[in-house]
Structure formats: structure tokens, C-alpha cells
Amino acid sequence: MKTRFLQVLTLGAGLFAAAGASADEGMWTFNHLPKAALKQQYGFEPTDAWLTHVRRSSVKVGGCSGSFVSDNGLVLTNHHCAEECIARLSTPAQDYTKRGFYAKVSAEERVCPGQQINQLGEVTDVTARIQKATSGLEGEAFHQAFRAESARIEKACATSESINCEVVSLYHGGLYELYQYRRFRDVRIVFAPEVDIAFFGGDPDNFNFPRYDLDLTFLRVYEDGKPVSTPDHLSFARTELKPNDLTFVSGNPASTERLLTVAQLEYQRDHALLEHLLSLARYRGFLSEYGERDAEAKRFARSELFGVENAFKALRGRQEALLDPAFFNHLVANETRLRARVAADPKLKPQYAAAWSAIEKAQAREAELHKELTWVEGSGSRPAWAKTSLFTWARLLVRASEERPKKNEDRLEEYADARLPSLEQRLLAPKPLNQAFEIAKLAFGLVALREELGADHPFVKQVLGKASPEELASALVKGSKLQSEAERKRLWEGGKPAILASKDRMIQLALSLDGEGRAIRTRYENEVESVLTKNSELVARARFAVYGMSSYPDATGTSRLSFGTVRGWRENGRLLPAFTTIGGAFERATGRAPFALPKSWLEHQSQLDPAMPFNFVTDNDIIGGNSGSPVINREGEFVGLVFDGNIHSLGGAFGFDIAHNRTVAVDARAIAHTLDKVYGASRLTTELGTAK
Amino acid sequence: MKTRFLQVLTLGAGLFAAAGASADEGMWTFNHLPKAALKQQYGFEPTDAWLTHVRRSSVKVGGCSGSFVSDNGLVLTNHHCAEECIARLSTPAQDYTKRGFYAKVSAEERVCPGQQINQLGEVTDVTARIQKATSGLEGEAFHQAFRAESARIEKACATSESINCEVVSLYHGGLYELYQYRRFRDVRIVFAPEVDIAFFGGDPDNFNFPRYDLDLTFLRVYEDGKPVSTPDHLSFARTELKPNDLTFVSGNPASTERLLTVAQLEYQRDHALLEHLLSLARYRGFLSEYGERDAEAKRFARSELFGVENAFKALRGRQEALLDPAFFNHLVANETRLRARVAADPKLKPQYAAAWSAIEKAQAREAELHKELTWVEGSGSRPAWAKTSLFTWARLLVRASEERPKKNEDRLEEYADARLPSLEQRLLAPKPLNQAFEIAKLAFGLVALREELGADHPFVKQVLGKASPEELASALVKGSKLQSEAERKRLWEGGKPAILASKDRMIQLALSLDGEGRAIRTRYENEVESVLTKNSELVARARFAVYGMSSYPDATGTSRLSFGTVRGWRENGRLLPAFTTIGGAFERATGRAPFALPKSWLEHQSQLDPAMPFNFVTDNDIIGGNSGSPVINREGEFVGLVFDGNIHSLGGAFGFDIAHNRTVAVDARAIAHTLDKVYGASRLTTELGTAK
Fold it and tell me: Which residue of A81, A617, A619, B202 lies most exposed, with the fewest beta carbons within 10 A?
């Protein structure tokens, strides 16, 4: 799974998980692991030292996960999590995506522009402060108070540029915690294999199993020009992983929505997922054909196409789960039961009974606002039509010039002081753009905008005027200098006067559209988001009052631990085994992309052990964001690298089906074996302690 | 609306319409028009002579409609209905799509390759024969008996190549009629305007209003090299059309599904429409970008893109109607009421009560089979991956060689004797292909096939082997000579020996896949189609037993008449007027496609009357297939040319909403005015009798 693309559907706050969860279900916080259940089921109770060691060995790599695997700051994550770095360092003459990357000596390790790695440090309960600040508030007032208090807390915590702080809402406001991260901003690439083996099977095999992928990249964190010392790290296992072994996965699952109300699930099924899928499908057709223009076009379109294909499959899986009557009816029955319990209790009824219908009304309002929000403001860094980083930068610069002079707590949340350093780093990191590609993407987006809102919509008229989408896209891209880091820096530092004086077409456009975007966003926040936040919290509390707190919070992109076992599953009456082998990859290869093994593998086939385990599945409960997570045995050793879930894992956003939902990982033994036999990466195998 | 693309979702047989239909609702057969209601509501009762005249003046133009508008075989239909003809006659040097076409003298009228026009003649009730032949039969036996008896009846009826016969099922088996058509196979083009005005506003304005389109083409039918005499034709109106005037629309609505059961509607909403939309969206992105390769690519991709955009919008409209809780709940309530009446009646219950659950089971089976049916066999002339006419021809040739030697009644229905002449004409008509486009489309389709069924599916392995989609597509297209009419003719005439001896790659592929296609089709016919046919008939009869026969049958692509009035509608609280004017087109023009007026219009603007009515809307009940239908006043005169429905008309597949559902037409006065002032088409205005 490639979770960066899954985060758009996040509702932003967790909910209590269902009571009566099946064994192995759950993305637990490290401080509330159900140790008793674990001991009873597996005869294993992790010590606090074990848990602290695992937690401190785990890191967040952008929207992915990873782990330290040496005491010299070496980080292991997925190839697809470092793909942007690899692409940015590539040139037509030296394409690291295609050929792989290996720094034979330390000096050859290269900086990944804009890449950050965060290691979770202290966790502080700030529930009382947040609840006090928001007490009795609703709607925009609640939202603003929460934002302001969070911003204050985060600012006080972020005492240096190498510290990153975030107020995290768990159990949907049942618990607020301040997460303090150590932030590494000098991240260098050490090793990446060829994309042909990192993503063997490509989109056809994505979310499938059996699988044969070496989806890994080694990075290293530096400070002051030297590798950081990392005493907390995972050693490669010295024991052999077998079926039914207990496995832990440590990582940062981005988002689950397992306790959405029926109205929210219906909204997802009939509106949000559907519209997103239709729009992704069209963009995908465009990108795949764009890549046929020439080799340069292919190089630029590849990464974006990959993201779109991945998101499409992931969201389609979610939608299919919601369209499955058995799955959906089960969730309906859960809600009916809880509402009946609340209605029958004279103490609970007045506090909570109205929450469900309030959510239902807010969802109806969201259905009305959704399209305009998407196309005028967007739910992320830009509206849906503005498919170019040039606009992302332009809007960021325009808004930052407006927001930074304000008091911290009055700003749009993404411009709060605690978030500015990452924002600035992302803005100023070099990112090569291809002019033709930017124009084509933007023209595509403008055509879609006109269709979605209609040619007569005031916003469409404001954007397009009398120009055709193609003309406008070309004029905007050619009339912008934002591809230059220096120009972005100048405007970032120049603030409002520089923005107002700028003749840059993209800046001027972002400036002229800013009011419309803020207006629809404010309506959405007040009429939808704050109502959902408030009432989801009520539903969560009602659930807590009825069932007690025996479960895990929904995923929110923060540090979690899941436990499970190595095992296959039954598909169409056939048992799929838990492991594939390196020999299997050679059998499956056709010599044609995406089933073409790289030259290095073909040349070293005779040195490889065909029986060596390659990929495996476990029933750990994971979701997008867990990409790059280590799989850990009871000794706290590294036994595998999570890189995907099977097709049934996609419904995991809404519920966990232990019979079918599987985590897919690269076996640690295959990593050590191929580093040695295929890549001759002795510097790495020595550092990992796997050299023979 | 461009109905050729809407027919894929047809279930093949009509159902009784709901009792209690609103005024103006209904696509009536000419022989069961509710004259009493018409008289009561509008004080107008058409005579039998009026009805016969209108029916005989109306024609079927491929999947569209049209009418005779002179006594010399002149046919008026939509530009988008003749688009394929116009494109086929075009060359890079002489692009009639772009520049328009006008035969200044008779000799310049050019044959439209493969185009047929059918005029409905005699209609005979054959209910007794069909019911006798299928009496007591179910499943495959029913299907086969129905097919065999229909084939016999049609064969006996089709006494010459200029007669085309079809057994039509109305009221879902309540009535079977034999329709005898006079078939015109020499169709020539007389006049077509530039696509810029025929489709002004393009995809953004499609299914929208206000509208400014001259979506028309004049054709002429010939026999023995001479124009056919057509005493039954519509004269251009001599009176002015006004708001609230009574209007009739005569045409061939392709398919409505207004009496589907809830299980069938859910299947449409959650499976058929959804999967089709996702697949269209992706193909659309591909086609739009393919057209950017170069001018030649744009020319070839344009027509296909147009069809895909249109189908997407149309199906999305249907889906939105089904996702509207009010609309859907209304249909659920209708069914609940009917089932309760049946359950409460001791005579009806044993006959009909089980039909709904039988349908529900068949729909569940269809949901399981649907994907394989779509990708292995397809519901039309080819499976979903085979996006090239080369494969369509190959499969047709392979199957014809297998089917033609069989007894007529044992054949697959599309190879029955009565259908062979059209089949042969379509097969042998010249159709220029662009090799690069065929390869790109086929490669796109093969990638989608591998994804949809999975790389390990036996059919995918059989098709692809170890080749990549791009390699295989290229080898197949380059290894086929089927683009030559002569080669197709040779294989058609050579039959099985010629097919078996052929080294043509596309023929060999079609041959090797034929068994798989037939197998899944047989399963679908036996386990789904025949169960649905049988039980839908039971539901229809139950409805008839409860409510009586006071309504119209679902559309089935056969001749229908609807009545209504000229009127606008309320949208977001604002009343949209019924007429637009020629002046409005100039105001809306931006000079950029799709809002660029053609040069001819800009040059003649001063001679045009800006107040002249251009397009208008009525509340006639129409659907895809009515494209090209005449709008007729009570005098039986031509007052307009139907070319679209508004956005609300798209839910018309499942129900009629008189408050919003509108027919969109070109005003007859705008046709006469622009033929005169813009095109100086005096030969035409003289023939139409509109010359001043």
C-alpha cells in the first residue's frame, strides 16, 4: 500500500474501536497495549523495556513508516516511500529508479531533498488543557479554540528546529496527547534496488499475493554532517521465521474509520469514494497515455501514475467493502444496538441520543458542499483542478504572506508556528518540473473543472475567462518562475509586499482565487467539520459509556503496534501459503514489464538460493501509513519489512476481517541474501551484521 | 443525447409502465395512444390518418431517429447521428466534420458507407405464436424456443433484401409484435454544418440548457440510383411555435427500465453502472490525451472520445438518480405496495409471489458473472478489452463461419437469417483505420483486462502469454489484414475453410478465444438472462392483474409517440425560459473550442436575426434513441429537431420527473433561417419549402 495517497479521506479524528474485536485485531498505542490478551493468547508479555526499544527503533518517513537497523542512523523503509527522492536525484543519463542506487562509500550517500524522518520521543497527556479550552463550545468556536490551544501547546513544545510537536486526538477526543518528535532533516540515500524488482508485478500485482517484491530502500539520518548514533535499533533476526510465529508490526497507520456512523459510511460509499474514484480513473487514463509521448514524458509521468493507480485500487477496495451487503449490514446492526442501549438509558439518552441525527444532517450538508469544496479549495494543498506544484507553491506563498503576520492562534491551522519549519522545507526543496507535463496536467484539470462545476459557474468563469483550458494552462505555466527555488525563497521571505508586487501568473491567479477558497472552506468547517467532530466525540463517549474502554483508537497517523501471526488464507476454497520464494520470482518473470526481473538478478541467478523465503503474509492489522514498518519477532528482532496489504485488507479502513485481511512483507532473509548475492553490498551487510 | 452509447445497459425486454403516471409521461406505441387523456388534457384527438402519416414520416437512422422532410427522400436527423458517415468521408485535406458538407447539386450527394435507414411498415401481433412456442418452458429451453420461433417468423417476413423484420417484445411478453421495416441501404449525405456549431458547447454543455446547437444533418435515401419518393413526410411548420404549445415527439427511444425490481435497480446502481462508469472514465482520460499526439491522432480519437464523454455523462445521470434517496425510496415503495397486493390475493400469490426473489437471486448471480462476461465475451460485438474494429470483424467472421452452416433456429441470435444482411453490410462497409490508434486502444484494453481479471486468470494467460500488452497489440494489429474490405469479403465468403486456413493474427486470436466466450455467455443466458426474462414477465403480469393495462410499455428501440408542451423549468429557484435565440450563441461564444462559432457564422452574423429562436425545451418524455426525432405540432408539421435531454432527463431511464425532465430541440425556424443566411443552401430551402 502506498499510503501517501490514502490520506485524503481521513476524517481527521479517531473513534473508539468496536467492542468485541476479534483476536489480532487492533492498531494499539504503545501505552495501552492489551498485554493480558497477548499473554493469554501467545504466552508472551512484552516488558516496558521491550516496548520502549521497539518504539524508539521505529520512525516516521514522510507519510510512511520505517525503522533504525544499525547504530549508525541507518533506516530501512520501502522503495515506494523513497521513490520521490530517487526520482529527484535521477537524471536522464543516471536514472536511479531504473538502475537502482548504492553508495559504495559513505561519501556517496546523497541528500534526499525535502525528506524528513521523525522519531517519536516524549508523549504527554494534554486532555485536560484541550478540554478546558474547548469546554461548552460548538461549531466554528469549538474548532477555533481547539486549533488555538493546540497551536499554543505545539509551539511551547517545539523548542528547536530539530523538534517537531503535534497534538494528537485519540479515541475521538477521549484522549489528547502531545507527541514530541525528534526531527531529522538531513536524510541521505544509501541503497535502493531497481524499480523492476522493488515493484515487480507492478500495478497488476499491487495489493495481491503471492508476491515477489524487494520493495526497500536504505536511508541514513545525519546531523551536523555526520551519521546520527542510534543505539535503539532493530537487529536482523538470528532465528528463522516460520508459519504461526507471533509477529508485531510497529508503524504509523494513517487512518481508519472503523466507527463511522451509518450516515457517514453511506456518505463515503455514495459520494466521497465514488467521486474520487471516477476522477482518479480519468486522470489515470490521461497519465498512462501521456507517458507514451516520449521517454522524458514517461519518466515524469511514472511516479504520478503509480500513485494514482495505487490510490485507485485502494479506494476501490474500500468501496467494494461498503458495497458488500454482509459487511455493511453488520455495521448497521452494530449502530442499531448501540443506539438502542443509549435510548434505553435515562442518563445516556439526553447526553448522546441526538448525536447520530446531527451527524446525518452534517453528512447531507457535506454532500451538498463536497463538489465545490473539492474544486474551489480542495481538501489538501490545492484544489482538484490545479494539478501542478506551481499552483501548490503559489497558494502556499500567497496564504503564508497573509497568515504569518497574524497571531499564531488565529491562523489557518497549516500555518501555525509549529508547522512552519516543515512547510518551509517542503516549499524550498528543489523539485525538477517538466514544463510540458505541468501544462498538460493543468489543462486536464481545467477541463475537468469546467465539467464538474459547469461552464456557467462563477468560479469557472473567474478562472477561465474566455481562454481555453489549454491556452490558460500554457500561459500560467510559462508565465511562472516558481520552479526556481530562489524565486520561491524570495517570495517566502518578501511576504505580502513581494506577493502583491509579483508579476508571476501563478501567484496572481492564486491571489485572485484565495477569497473563494477560504469562503467555501469556512462554510465546510463550520457547517460540516465542526459538527462531525463534536458529534463523533459524543458517539464515541456513548460507546465508551456502554461498552467500556477495552479497545484501540482509530488510526491517526501516529505510532502504533499490532500483533498477529504468520499465516496464509483461504481464497476460493484454496489455501494460499504464507511464504513465497526467490525461485518463484524467476518462474513468474516474463521478461516484460512489469514482470521483468532486472539484469542484476538474471546475471546472479545461479548464486541465489531458489528456496529462500522472499515475501510473506501475516494477519497483523495494518493500513496505509504502515508501509515500511518493521515486522518484529518476540525477541524484538527485525524479521520483515511491510510493503503492502492483500486485496481484502482494503476494507480494513472500516473493519477487520481476520479470515482474509493480510499484511504483505519482504522477508529479512531475502534482504540479507540479495544484498549479498545480487548487489555485493558488503558495506551494508557488514553494518547490518548479516555478512557471512 | 447520443443514444448509440446507451444501449449497452438494455435488459432487452420491456416492462409494463407504472400505474398512475403523471400527465405527459409515456413513450406510447402508435396503436395504443391514450387518445381520451390527450383529448381531455389538450382538446386534441389525432385522427388515424394523422397518426399513420406521422408514423410513416418517421424513420430509424441506425440507433437514432429521423424524419422525411420532403417528397424526395430527404431525411433530417442529428449531426451526431451521422457523425460516423461524415468522419468516414473526410480526409486530412477535406475534413467535413470541421468544414461541414453541402451538396450543391444532386450529383454531389455522397454515399454514407454502411448507413441504413428503416421505415416502419406493417405491424402484426404474433403473441399467440410466441407464447405457444415457449409455453411451459424455462431457462435455456425458453430462451432457445423464443429465439427459434422469432427467427422463423422474421425469416418468413423478410422476403427481400429491402425488407427488415424484427419480433418485438412489448409489455414484457404481454405482447409480441412483428415489425416489418422498409430498409434503405443507399443513404447519401446532403448537408451537414460544421461540428463547431452542430456541437457548440461540446461536452461541457452536453445534457445542459440553455443551449445553442445546430445539431443536424440532411441525408437522402436512394433506390436504384434515384431518390426515393416519400409522399409521407413532414412539412416545416407555417405557424410560430410558442411556450405551452402541444408537441409530439415521434422516434425510437432505445431503452427504459422503469419497472425494474428493487433488486435489479440495486444491481444497476452498485455493479453495472458503477463498473461501466469507472471503465469509461479511464478510457476517456486515455482518449483525450491520445488526441494530443498530433492532428491525425486527434481526428481519429475525436469521434470515439465524443461517444465516451456522452456515455459517461448519461450513465452518471442514471446513477445519480438511483443514488437519490427520494427517487429510490419511491421505487421501493411502489414495489412494496405491489407485492403486498399480490401476497394478499389467493389467486395471484401462487402465480406471481415468487418472481421477485427469483429475480433477486438471478441478480446476485449476475453480480458474480458480470466481470467475466464483460471481459471474456462482452455484451455487444466484442469483449471489453478488444477496443478495435479488427477484433470485432475477426470475431464476427469466426462466428459467422461457425453459425451460418447451422439451422437458422440453432444459431446465436445475431446470426439468424433475418439479421445476416445488416451484419454483412456492416462487415463489408469500408472503414478507414489508423494503425497507431488501433494499437494504442488495444494495448490500453489489454492492460485493463489484466488488471480486471488478474494476471493469473487463465483467460488472461491465454490472451497475453508472456507478451506485454503493447507488444501483443502491435503484433496483432500489424499481423492483420482485416482493414481491407476485400479480405473481409474473402473470409466471409470462404466460410470455415478460409477461417481455418487464415494466417491473420486477429482471426487466429478470435478463433482461439471463441470457446471461452461462448461458455461464459451460455452460463449468463441460462443462469441470469432467461431467469430475468421469465420472472420479469411474471412481475409485469402481476402488475397488469393488479393495476390493469392503462399505461405504456418500456422503450425497446421501436417506434413511439410522446406528447407534451413547450416549457422551461425551475432550477435552484430560478425559472429557465423555454427558448434560446441565435443572438445568444454570439454572446456565449469565446472564440475557443468548444465555444468557438464557425467562420461561416461569424462572417454572416449581420444577416442573422438575433431574436430568432434557436433551441427550445419541452416536457416530452424521451430517452436515448430519440436523437434526431421530429418535434411535431397538432397540424402534423415539423417544428423542431430533438437532439438532447437536459441533465434531469438522465434519470428518465428509471422514472419520469415532469417538473425537471426536459427534451432539448433545434427550432425549425433556426434551421430554415441559417440554411438561408449562413449557408446559402438554396437547393435545400427550396426543397423544404422554406425559401423566402
Answer: B202
For an interface test with B, which of A206, A208, A286 has the most B Cβ atoms less than 10 Å from its Cβ?
A: A286
Q: How far apart are the first and last CA of chain B?
A: 32
Task: Give the global pTM.
Answer: 0.80
Chain B residue whose CA is closest to A457: B204
Euclidean distance between CA atoms A528 and B209, whole angstroms: 32
Tens digit of pLDDT for each residue in A433-473? 999 999 999 999 999 999 899 888 899 999 999 899 999 99
Q: Which of B266, B485, B226, B452 is nearest to B356 (CA)?
A: B266
Residue B345's pLDDT is what?
97
Q: How far apart are CA B617 and CA B571, in angstroms?
A: 14
Asked if B460 and B453 count as a contact pair (C-beta separation under 8 A), the reply is yes
CA A271 – CA A371 distance, rounded (Å): 10
Determine contact: A287 vs chain B, CB below 8 A: yes
How many Å apart are CA A495 and CA A210, to the nearest integer? 53
Report which of B114, B5, B118, B25 is spatially closest to residue B564, judged by C-alpha positions: B25
Query: Helical H runs in A376-484?
Result: 389-403, 420-428, 435-453, 458-464, 469-478
Size of interface A-B (CB pairs under 8 A): 94
Asked if the interface predicted TM-score (ipTM) of this complex is over 0.95, the answer is: no
CA gap B559, B30 in Å, rounded: 8
The answer to whether the CB atoms of B471 and A592 lie below 8 A apart is yes
Q: How far apart are the C-alpha atoms of A629 and A612, rounded to whole Å?
A: 21
pLDDT tens, residue by residue, A536-546:
888 988 887 88
- Secondary structure element (H or E) that encloses residue B147, with its range: helix B139-157
Q: What residues have CB less than 8 Å from A660, skipping those under 6 apart? A: A569, A570, A571, A646, A648
The C-alpha cell that represents A535 in the structure block: 458529534
Q: For B471, name the nearest residue in chain A, comparing CA atoms only.
A: A592
Q: Do B287 and A285 touch (CB under 8 A)?
A: yes
Chain A residues inside the 8 Å CB shell of B277: 278
Q: How far is A466 from chain B (nearest CA, A)?
A: 5
Chain A interface, best mutation among B200, B211, B270, by max A CB count within 10 A = B270
Cα–Cα nearest to B355, from B339, B331, B332 = B339
- C-alpha separations of A138 from A347, A530, A531, B483 in Å: 22, 7, 7, 69
A218, β-bridge pairs: A76, A191
Output phi, psi for A515, to 5 deg. Answer: -60, -45
For A101, the enclosing helix (H) or strand (E) is strand A101-102
Cβ(A628)–Cβ(A601) below 8 Å:
no
Longest dimension (CA), chain A: 74
Spatial CA neighbour of B646 closest among A274, A457, A454, A468: A454
Name beta bridge partners: A615: A666
Q: Which residues pair with A561 in a beta bridge?
A: A28, A250
Distance, in angstroms, between A391 CA and closest chain B CA?
A: 22
Query: How far apart, in whole angstroms, are the C-alpha atoms of residue B40 and residue B38?
Result: 5
**How large is the average pLDDT for residues B628-647?**
96
